[in-house]
Write a structure and sequence with these properties.
CATH architecture: 3-Layer(aba) Sandwich
Bound molecules: S-adenosylmethionine
Strand order of the largest sheet: 1-8-7-2-3-5-4-6
Largest sheet: 8 strands, mixed
Helix content: 25-40%
Order of helices and strands: EHEHEHEEHHEHEHEHH
CATH superfamily: Vaccinia Virus protein VP39
Strand content: 15-25%
CATH class: Alpha Beta
Number of helices: 9
Length: about 270
């Protein structure tokens, strides 16, 4: 964590400041991957007013930070942006004017069936856009293949399949990612209302950040992108407005240097839910 505005060294720092001014610290072309989960324009409480803008002001603000962030990407760079259905159409159009859209990924949060909307369908997914700066973008499919289970392997035990490379390598993830949201009891859970699971962010980083590369997240929240980058052996840089979340990020990252049994201790000491 570094809150000194005159610091020259920005690598592996999360700055406790407004990303829109803070990103000036980062030289253009120096970022391999942007993974971000900005405020959704839904009025959520992050201990500040960042999610309380009206629709027009929200979309103007989104465009503003996008135009500051994109020049930071290297030519082989890409971007994942976590959104909700509410504004993803407008934001995807905005990004398609600047980048190549590769996927709309649906994160199925596996919310259990306990009530929900009564005049429409209950939303259980987040919408994630995956965009590349140019055609030659970095993408390592082998890093994210999913192993076939024993049953599938057994079913493919006929001689024509023996030694088949694809059977050993596993299959490529599809564009619907079914990963449970972080319940209160989850060991990963920190005191942040919209914390993303490491599993999701780590998949993005493994696939789209070259070894030893650098990941930018302008809206760190509880620091999931920083923790995921560190766990994957990558560098990170990011920003967060709320000083309490900045302290949480510091704690989370320090845990990653701790012995393995302390790494996943609950970060929920004082959460009120
Ligand atoms: C959706 S949350 C990110 C959650 C994060 N992905 C996680 O897993 O914890 C968005 C975060 O952006 C922060 N934020 C909002 N406006 C900001 C700004 N201008 N600069 C930096 N951080 C900002 C909010 O305080 C909030 O914590």
């Amino acid at each position: 964590m570094n809150s000194n505005p005159s610091a020259v060294d920005w690598m592996n720092c999360v700055f406790c400041e407004d990303a829109l001014t803070g990103m000036a610290r980062i030289p253009d072309g120096s970022i391999d991957l942007i993974v971000t989960d900005p405020p959704y324009g839904l009025g959520k409480d992050y201990g500040n007013d960042s999610d309380k803008l009206g629709a027009d002001a929200y979309l103007r603000w989104m465009e503003q930070w996008i135009d500051i962030a994109l020049p930071k990407l290297a030519p082989t760079g890409s971007l994942y942006i976590c959104l909700t259905w509410r504004y993803s159409p407008e934001i995807f159009v905005m990004l398609k004017q600047r980048m190549t859209m590769l996927n709309e990924i649906i994160w199925d949060r596996r919310v259990p069936s306990m009530g929900g909307s009564v005049r429409s369908y209950t939303s259980v997914h987040d919408t994630i856009g995956f965009f590349a700066k140019q055609k030659g973008y970095y993408f390592n499919l082998d890093a994210i293949r999913i192993p076939y289970d024993a049953e599938t392997k057994k079913a493919r035990s006929r001689s024509i399949f023996v030694g088949a490379k694809w059977l050993e390598m596993g299959y490529n993830p599809k564009d619907v990612w079914s990963v449970s949201r972080l319940h209160r009891e989850h060991p990963e859970r920190a005191d942040h209302p919209t914390q993303k699971p490491l599993e999701i962010i780590e998949r993005m980083i493994k696939a789209s950040c070259p070894p030893g590369g650098t990941v930018l997240d302008p809206f760190m929240g509880s620091g999931t992108t920083a923790a995921a980058a560190k766990r994957c052996g990558m560098n990170f840089v990011g920003f967060e407005l709320n000083p309490e979340y900045c302290a949480l990020i510091e704690k989370r990252l320090a845990r990653l240097d701790a012995p393995i049994e302390q790494m996943m201790l609950p970060l929920l000491d004082d959460i009120a839910e």
